[in-house]
């Protein structure tokens, strides 16, 4: 399994290196796998029809939203945990000044599941062996990401 990356430049806007361009790498996605495509793939490897798979995914999405509304975090087997987080103002000096008005937005958040092996986190969503390859749009192979 490989993961493509591209080289990107960024102009530094502050500090000693202001105005200098520095380079780093950024991951590249070959596209988005839609629910319809996922349903067809899952259906091809099971006894469920694409419609059955989509119905389950639809109900699961509904279940997640409804239970987040009730105040629960939702563990997605093998993926991680969905929960709601607050975007808030800076802290205040005393507990009696802390209240709901400090919350400016409520956003969905995701904490990926992992196991600790020899002191290192091994994330379940990251394949065991990944080779990084420089992205070249002329030789793009979209089939590998849709296996």
Task: Give a quick rundown of the structure.
By secondary structure, the protein is an alpha+beta fold.
Order of strands across the biggest sheet?
2-1-8
Number of strands: 8
**Helical residue percent band:** 10-25%
Averaged pLDDT, please? 90
Order of helices and strands: EEHHEEEEEE
Structural class: alpha+beta
How many helices? The count is: 2
Unreliable stretches covering 5 or more consecutive residues: 142-147
Tell me about the largest β-sheet.
3 strands, mixed
Cα(first) to Cα(last) distance is 10 Å
The whole-angstrom Rg is 21 Å
The general outline is extended
Strand content: 25-35%
Q: How would the blueprint of this fold be written?
A:
Elements: E1 2-11, E2 21-27, H1 35-44, H2 50-69, E3 74-76, E4 80-88, E5 103-112, E6 114-117, E7 120-123, E8 131-134
Parallel strand pairs: 1-8
Antiparallel strand pairs: 1-2, 3-4, 4-5, 6-7
Task: Characterise the protein shown here.
The chain has 147 residues and is of the alpha+beta class. The protein is 20% helix and 35% strand. The strands form three sheets. Strands 2-1-8 form a three-stranded mixed beta sheet, with no helix packed on it. A hairpin with a 2-residue loop joins strand 6 and strand 7. Helix 1 crosses helix 2.
Task: Note the main attributes of this structure.
3-stranded antiparallel beta sheet; 147 residues; 8 strands; alpha+beta; disordered C terminus
